[in-house]
Each structure stands twice: as C-alpha cells, then as structure tokens.
Amino acid sequence: MYKIAVIGGDGTGPEVVREGLKVLDVVSKKFGFKYETKEFDFSGKRFLATGKLVDEKDVEELKKYDAIYLGAVGDPDVKPGIIETGVLLKLRFALDQYINLRPVKLYNSAFCPLKDKKPEDIDFVVVRENSEGIYKGMGEFQKKGTKDEVALQISYNTRAGVERCIRYAFEFTRKRNKRKTLTLCGKTNVLTYAWDLWQRVFNEVAKEYTDIKTDYAHVDATTMWFVKNPEWFDVIVTDNIFGDIITDLGAMIQGGMGIAAGGNINPAGVSMFEPIGGSAPKYTGKNVINPLAAICAAGMLLENIGEEKAGKAIENAVIKIVQTKVKSLAAGKMGYSTSEIGDLVIENL
Ligand code: IPM
Ligand code: MN
Fold it and tell me: Which residue has the least CA distance to atom 5 on ligand 1?
C-alpha cells in the first residue's frame, strides 16, 4: 500500500491534480497495486487565511509518505517570493530533493514551435541541481534604501552537493541508455569559482563512467542549441538557476507548459512530482487548463516508487492522444475540456 501526499495548491493546481488522480485510480486497478492519498492544503490561499506556510511538523509528517503529488502553488494576491520560498522551495530543501528531473520530449511535431523538428529530434532530460546555487537564499543588503545600496545574492556550491548531483546524472545517463552522452551546462568563462568546481568534479566523476560520452556547453550557447539543434542532447546536468531557465525553454520546444512534467527527487527519501508550469490564475475554475503535464507527473511518480510499467502506460496513453486527438496543448484550445482530457487518457490506457 503506497502512501501518496497530495498538494493541489493554488489556481489550476487542484484541477490538474484531480485529473492525475483519476488516471492513477484506473491505472492502479489495471496494474494491481494499492495506494492511499491524503490531501495537504499548503497554498497561497491558506497563507492569506492563516499566515501559515510549511513548518517542521508538516515536513516530519510528509516524510512518512512514499511520494508527494503537487499541482501548483502561487497566488497573485501574495507578494512574490513568500509562497515560493515558504512552500515549494521549503519542501524541496527540507526533504533534500536535490535533483530536479525534467524530461523534454516532443510527442507530436505539430505542437513544436521549431520548424522541421520531429519527436526523435527533441528527446532529452535536464538534471537540475535542486538544493543549492543561487536558490540557497544567501545574501544581504548593504546600505539599503540609499544611493549606495548593494544587494548580494550568493551562489552556494558545495563539493558534496555538486558531486551527488553529477553522480546522479551519470547514473541516469547510463540507465537511460539512449545516446549515453552527458552534457555539463555551465558558465565556466565568467563564473570562475562556481563553475570551476562543477567542471573539476564533472571531469573527476567522468573517469568512473568510461561508457558515457561527456560534453560541455555554456548556458547561453545551450539555449541556442535548444532552438537550433536540440537533437544533440541526451542528458544535461546543470545548477539550480540555469536548470530553472533552460527548462522553461525546454518546455516550449516540447509543446508548452501544458505537457511539461518534472520530479523533485531525493533518491533516498520522499520525492515530489509536479507539472512545471504555474498556477495559471486566469484559467482557474474554467475547466480549460491542460492537465497532461500533471498526468505525466503522476506517471513519473509511479516510475519513481517502483511501478514502472504503470508509469510507462500513462506516458504511452498521453502520447497516443497527443498524436491523434488533442488539437493544441494550450489552455482553452485543446478541443477538449480539462476533465475530458483526463477521460481520454483513461480510455487509452
Ligand atoms: C520551477 C519554478 C520555481 C523555481 C519557482 C516557482 C520558485 O519556476 O519549478 O521551475 O524557480 O524553481
Ligand atoms: Mn521555473
């Protein structure tokens, strides 16, 4: 019996999670596994009503689960930064989900904004470091409010933190067994402390993985290749902020936020799966948002807890309907409502 914590969150989060849970229910019967869910109401809404974010007790409770399924958090009525750091980053950090795994896979060339790119050209995975870097929140103001003000925001990179991320990426590349190529995406030409460490650790660890080809690309060049030659990539490993930025571009070339899923992974603990798009306030409650990213995130969750076949079945059903039914991956233009898309996935399982 798996225990899954469910955080619907804000905006369209609960709507897309509902569809993912619908699919999970059917797939569990088909593949013969049992699970129970419990809902947690962490959100901007809850913060506005109670002032509460995620606290240590919540974290301890969540550690009892096999996985967390998250919709989206973020409320336009709350100042930017509070919910993000108090809920999403808090969970990632407190549960030591040090990998953010973001597959970028095109399922139908009709939904790719790039000319002449086919599904076989866009199929790579970004391994984003998820616990350090500039996201660490280190820094300070000096002379705040004066003309001489200085704002420092520090990129914090530990040898151990960088190494565990790079090792994960090498293992992942080997297991994926596709082109067996791992690209380090950084900025060694300017960020000469952080990326010197990353490059050194990458080169050292690479010696243990002689079956994996290695490559390096500066982050700015990486964005260029995503558009020009995405077929060059197999697995990319990068730091927190670069991973954040390039995976939004990745989402666009795979068809948009409506289809992009990710996992916040603690290989030895509780991982959390989410569609990578936000809470989309303007579409909330209209039954028009695309739930496929959330449904794919549920598939990733199952693969992570050991139900690989069930997870793969979800992905295959999504591929089928994206290739044959769905008119667009954008909210309101799919040719189906949010709940109809969930039904279609179930019919194609
Ligand atoms: C993401 C999001 C978050 C991030 C925000 C909401 C804090 O953009 O998951 O990519 O920057 O990591
Ligand atoms: Mn982001």
Answer: 84
Q: What is the mean pLDDT of residues 245-259?
A: 97
Digit-coded pLDDT (tens) for 320-345: 999 999 999 999 999 999 999 999 99
Give the residue carrying structure tokens 């103001």.
141
- Does this model's pTM top 0.85? yes
What pLDDT does 170 receive?
A: 99
Tell me which of 53, 78, 84 to substitute to probe ligand 1's pocket, judged by most ligand atoms within 8 Å of the beta carbon. 84
pLDDT tier at 16, thresholds 50, 70, 90 = very high
**Cα–Cα distance between 19 and 342 in angstroms, integer?**
5
Q: How much distance in Å is there from the Cα of 72 to the middle of ligand 1?
A: 10
